[in-house]
Every structure is written in structure tokens, then in C-alpha cells.
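Lab meeting, item 3. Inverse folding demo.
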């Protein structure tokens, strides 16, 4: 039996042999170097470079447990979903996804374009870097990947086949638990609260019955609204950027779910970056982040409307007023999900550096309270958030309070 005919979790040396055996990307005699560079919660990511440094690829492999915890058992099939979606994204939103060179269903890995001329957006935002084209790029990406996969645009029978094809039960279960359940009751007892905010969070989150009811409604929306093929984890750690380019990676949580899940994740994670900038008194960065959030929402609305007008195929979706009704629902969901993401990243197991890296205790207390108070408004009043200004007005009101 050849070395890669049976699944095993590779080490650096194996990855070098693997790339040589499976691709003709490098010259046969090149000396290759390999590093594990992943910092995500689930998978292993290797960068393979030739010693001359002029060629490189990424190999991403799934283990049968989550990297963050051996207790989280996962099927290794998630790399297939990720590869298929990356290829689809490359076609739908040209220039915004890395190229996939190979998917291997035995080794449960894929080989893809190395984006090392780009940086992970979250890391760059933590350094208060700004990206003038980000709002334009990410709003284009969302409209061009989401709307074409809905019943509004696509053939309904084909769409139903896709819903089945992209069923992703285990990763959806992670989101149902970590985003929609545990932050409100800690029933798995793995929430991690920042000690100085503990009592405040117990009162404001665990004991807020109205909030928990609204989170329950949103959970069932996530589980039952097969609206579009969503990315499923569209936070700032899933974006690779330069000043000129934005690439979206890591769609392994993708499935047919509500469009607002992707839009809300972007809004929430840009808000984390803004609050982190505010904690360090970086005014120009905060202004940029505020404008970017506003533009993401407004450009999304504008491009969604234009794309709909050009591509709608369903006869009933052409009824006057239907588009506006549909978009209103998307925006309500987006606000609700933005709130949920902000709560789970502060209360739950999977945190974000934007908040945990704030070293001054008083500033972290304040940052968490701003995010959680704003999140509650996003969830409870979600039907009132329609424009970029609506989001920013609420943000400013809450920031003023603390
Ligand atoms: C166990 S995985 C924790 C989180 O990491 C991923 O990026 C998703 O956001 C998930 O909720
Ligand atoms: Mg990820």
C-alpha cells in the first residue's frame, strides 16, 4: 500500500512528500521546507516553500477531533465542503477566493494557493491597520456568493439538490451550541467569563428572559431557513487582505442557512476591531472602522438590490414589494446574528483576540460591556436595523453610556 492510500494525520515531513507525490507544482529536485502555520480552532495548515523561496502552496488537513479540544469529535469530510465551496466562490466572486489545486478524500486535505503576500485581517486590525477597499470587496463577495445560491435566482430543483449536498451536521451543531445556546445558559459548563465582569454578565445575559427567548427564535431560524449557501464563519480571521485585495478563506462551516448569518458575522467582528481600537485610543482607526461598518451595510443593500433586479428568475419574487420584504428579513437576521456573535465571543468558549488582548483591566471591562449591551440591542430590536447609520447610531449611543 502506498503511503497516502490510508488516512493519517501528517507531520511536516509527510506533507513535503505528499506535495511532491500529488502535484507537479515544484521541480522534482527542489528542496522543500514545511511549517505548520494554522491558528484556527479545527484544522492543521501547512505552508510548503521551495528553498529558493519563489514557489509555495498551502496544505490544509482535517483531524478527527477539533484542534481546540479533543472532546469535540468531527468527521474529516469537512475539507470536502470547504474545497467545493472555495471552488464555487472562485467562480461566483472572482478574485475573492484562493485557488484550490487538489482535494483528496482519503487524506482529507486540500492543496491551495498560498496567500502569504496577504495578512489575516484580524491580525492587521489588531495593529490598527486600515483597508480602504474592504467594505467594497466584502459587500461584493457576500452579494455575489449568497444571492445566486437562493431560490430567487437559481433553479429550484438544483437548489434542493445543493441543500442536501451541503448538509454539514457536525459543524452546524458547533454553531448551534457555541453561538445559539451555551452563551445564554452555560449548560455545557464551558463558558469562560472575564472575572471582573462575571456578576454583570450573569445578570445581563443569563438572567435576561427576553434576550434568551429572542436567541431561541434566531436559533430555529439558523436551523430551518435554507435560504442560501452561506460561508458560515465569516469573521475577520477568515479574511486575507492587502490594501488592494480581499480573499475569503475557511468556508468549512458552509451550509444552506440564512444570509444574515454571514452579514451579521462581518458586522460583529468589525465592531470588535473598532472597540479594540477605542480601548487603545486609536481615533483615526476607530473612524475608519465606523465608516467601514456603515459602508458594508449600505453597499450590501445597494448591490443586493442591483443584483436582484438583474438576476431574479422566480416569477413570484418579481412581485412589487417582495424584494424589499426579503431584504428587510435579511437585515433583521443580520442584526440578530451580529448580536449573537458578539455575545458568544465574550461569554462562550471561542474568544476573539480583539477583546482578550486588551491588557488594561478597566478598558477590558468597558469593552466587554459595550459589546454585550450593543449586542442585546441588535438582537432585541433587530427589526429596526436597516442602514449603516442605524448600526452606528446604536454603537455610538452605547459607547457614550460607558
Ligand atoms: C470548536 S470551533 C470554535 C469556533 O471556531 C470556528 O472558527 C467557529 O467560529 C467556531 O464556532
Ligand atoms: Mg475557521
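The presenter then showed the designed sequence:
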Amino acid at each position: 500500500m502506498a503511503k497516502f492510500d490510508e488516512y493519517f494525520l501528517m507531520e511536516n515531513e509527510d506533507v513535503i512528500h505528499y506535495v511532491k507525490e500529488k502535484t507537479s507544482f515544484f521541480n522534482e529536485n527542489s528542496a522543500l521546507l514545511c511549517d505548520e502555520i494554522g491558528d484556527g480552532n479545527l484544522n492543521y495548515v501547512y505552508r510548503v516553500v521551495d528553498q529558493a523561496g519563489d514557489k509555495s502552496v498551502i496544505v490544509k488537513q482535517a483531524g478527527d477531533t477539533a484542534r481546540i479540544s479533543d472532546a469535540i469529535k468531527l468527521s474529516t469530510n469537512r475539507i470536502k465542503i470547504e474545497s467545493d465551496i472555495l471552488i464555487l466562490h472562485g467562480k461566483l466572486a472572482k478574485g475573492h477566493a484562493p485557488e484550490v489545486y487538489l482535494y483528496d478524500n482519503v487524506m482529507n486535505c486540500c492543496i491551495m494557493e498560498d496567500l502569504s503576500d496577504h495578512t489575516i485581517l484580524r491580525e492587521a486590525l489588531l495593529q490598527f491597520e486600515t483597508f480602504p477597499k474592504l467594505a467594497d470587496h466584502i459587500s461584493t463577495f457576500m452579494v455575489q456568493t449568497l444571492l445566486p445560491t437562493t431560490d430567487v435566482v437559481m433553479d429550484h430543483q438544483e437548489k434542493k439538490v445543493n441543500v442536501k449536498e451541503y448538509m454539514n451536521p457536525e459543524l452546524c451543531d458547533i454553531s448551534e451550541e457555541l453561538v445559539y445556546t451555551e452563551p445564554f445558559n452555560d449548560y455545557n459548563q464551558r463558558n469562560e467569563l472575564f472575572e471582573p465582569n462575571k456578576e454583570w454578565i450573569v445578570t445581563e445575559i443569563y438572567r435576561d428572559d427576553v434576550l434568551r427567548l429572542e436567541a431561541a427564535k434566531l436559533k430555529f431560524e439558523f436551523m430551518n431557513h435554507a435560504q442560501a449557501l452561506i460561508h458560515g464563519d465569516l469573521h475577520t480571521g477568515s479574511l486575507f487582505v492587502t490594501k488592494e485585495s480581499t480573499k475569503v478563506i475557511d468556508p468549512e462551516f458552509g451550509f444552506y442557512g440564512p444570509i444574515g448569518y454571514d452579514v451579521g458575522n462581518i458586522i460583529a467582528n468589525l465592531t470588535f476591531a473598532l472597540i479594540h481600537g477605542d480601548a487603545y485610543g486609536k481615533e483615526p482607526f476607530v473612524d475608519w472602522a465606523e465608516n467601514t461598518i456603515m459602508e458594508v451595510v449600505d453597499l450590501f443593500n445597494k448591490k443586493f438590490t442591483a443584483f436582484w433586479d438583474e438576476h431574479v428568475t422566480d416569477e413570484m419574487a418579481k412581485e412589487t414589494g417582495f424584494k424589499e420584504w426579503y431584504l428587510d428579513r435579511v437585515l433583521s437576521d443580520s442584526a440578530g446574528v451580529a448580536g449573537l456573535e458578539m455575545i458568544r465571543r465574550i461569554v462562550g468558549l471561542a474568544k476573539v483576540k480583539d477583546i482578550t488582548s486588551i491588557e488594561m483591566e478597566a478598558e477590558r471591562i468597558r469593552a466587554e460591556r459595550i459589546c454585550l449591551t450593543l449586542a442585546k440591542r441588535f438582537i432585541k430590536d433587530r427589526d429596526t436595523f436597516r442602514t449603516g447609520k442605524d448600526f452606528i447610531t446604536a454603537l455610538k449611543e452605547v459607547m457614550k453610556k460607558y
